[in-house]
């Protein structure tokens, strides 16, 4: 499906997200300029985005669903529509906008609308994560335990409002330099791995922040697999070396890095720790993760633009 076939769409707005309310008018104006009839619905509580999207698609009167909010709002809609053919366009309206950034969507909302309406529909794998006290939920980018979860858990709201995604980077840098490591058991398709890790991530997309760096080699979002990226630096020097190698996309063997591709994963730290998926805190470990091949249809900017 091409974005040129979009004539009527639903826009799900989370007014509580960092930038959604201030960007709603610009988004609606951009849709109008492109000749797209847009139905705007606001969320009021967790779960609303999924319910709104599912009901609209069930009526059969729309060509696409767009979200304007954070990554949590986006994944509610993506999860609700998983397995279907109505594409989802993710507009940047939150703090991190991790999924929009990963897909190469412009961070200006009007530019994002134009890029997605005139873009392509891509089928991608999704992950499903669940655990004791954690209901099953989909993720598009990554689920993880360690530095990534600490970054989300410990970044103050006032700092996020002031600095946006930079606030997360500052918290992560402090955690890396502090050398926080934890014993963890990871099982990938039956293979057991034990390490003292700083971060354990199960990823679907390898590149982050506009391909500034990659988490590991050969990671694809449409191959029916997810990828374990386990980072186990033993010192601050190791941590700096690992970060530099990721920036340089240097994936030669390293004692501080473990990579495995697979379909089913168990992440079990020795002590319960916070877990996250696509920038949203889930609860405490252990967590189980599995892949659902080509489950989502997402709107992305057209290739070469």
TrEMBL record:
Q: Which domain of life is it from?
A: Bacteria
* PROSITE patterns according to UniProt: DAGK
User: Where is each DAGKc domain found?
Assistant: 4-133
> What InterPro entries does its record include?
ATP-NAD_kinase_N (IPR017438), Diacylglycerol/lipid_kinase (IPR005218), Diacylglycerol_kinase_cat_dom (IPR001206), Lipid_Phosphate_FormReg (IPR050187), NAD/diacylglycerol_kinase_sf (IPR016064), YegS/DAGK_C (IPR045540)
Q: Which UniProt keywords apply?
A: ATP-binding, Kinase, Nucleotide-binding, Transferase
Among the GO molecular function terms of this UniProt record, one is: ATP binding
Q: Name one Pfam family in it.
A: YegS_C
Question: What GO biological process terms are annotated to this protein in UniProt?
Answer: phospholipid biosynthetic process
Name the PANTHER family for this protein. Answer: SPHINGOSINE KINASE, SPHINGOSINE KINASE RELATED PROTEIN
The identity of this protein, by name, is DAGKc domain-containing protein
Q: Please name the source species.
A: Gemmatirosa kalamazoonensis
């Amino acid at each position: 499906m091409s974005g040129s076939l979009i004539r009527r769409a639903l826009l799900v707005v989370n007014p509580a997200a960092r930038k959604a309310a201030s960007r709603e008018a610009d988004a609606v104006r951009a849709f109008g300029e492109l000749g797209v009839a847009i139905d705007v619905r606001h969320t009021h509580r967790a779960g609303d985005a999924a319910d709104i999207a599912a009901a609209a698609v069930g009526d059969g009167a729309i060509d696409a669903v767009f979200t304007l909010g954070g990554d949590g709002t986006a994944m509610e809609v993506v999860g609700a529509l998983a397995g279907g053919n109505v594409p989802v366009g993710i507009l940047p309206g939150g703090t991190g906008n991790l999924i929009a950034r990963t897909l190469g969507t412009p961070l200006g909302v009007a530019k994002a609308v134009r890029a997605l309406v005139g873009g392509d529909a891509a089928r991608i794998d999704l992950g499903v994560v669940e655990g004791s006290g954690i209901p099953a939920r989909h993720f598009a980018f990554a689920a993880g335990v360690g530095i990534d979860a600490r970054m989300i858990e410990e970044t103050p709201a006032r700092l996020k409002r002031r600095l946006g995604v930079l606030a997360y980077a500052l918290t992560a840098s402090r955690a890396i330099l502090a050398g926080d490591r934890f014993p963890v058991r990871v099982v990938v398709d039956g293979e057991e791995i034990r390490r003292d890790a700083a971060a354990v991530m199960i990823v679907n997309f390898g590149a982050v922040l506009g391909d500034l760096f990659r988490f590991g080699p050969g990671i694809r979002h449409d191959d029916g697999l997810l990828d374990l990226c386990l980072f186990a630096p033993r010192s601050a020097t190791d941590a700096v070396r690992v970060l530099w190698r990721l920036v340089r996309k240097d994936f030669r063997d390293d004692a501080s890095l473990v990579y495995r591709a697979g379909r089913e994963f168990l992440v079990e730290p020795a002590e319960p720790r916070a877990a996250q998926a696509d920038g949203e805190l889930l609860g405490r470990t252990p967590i189980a993760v599995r892949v659902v091949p080509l489950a989502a249809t997402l709107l992305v900017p057209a290739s070469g633009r």
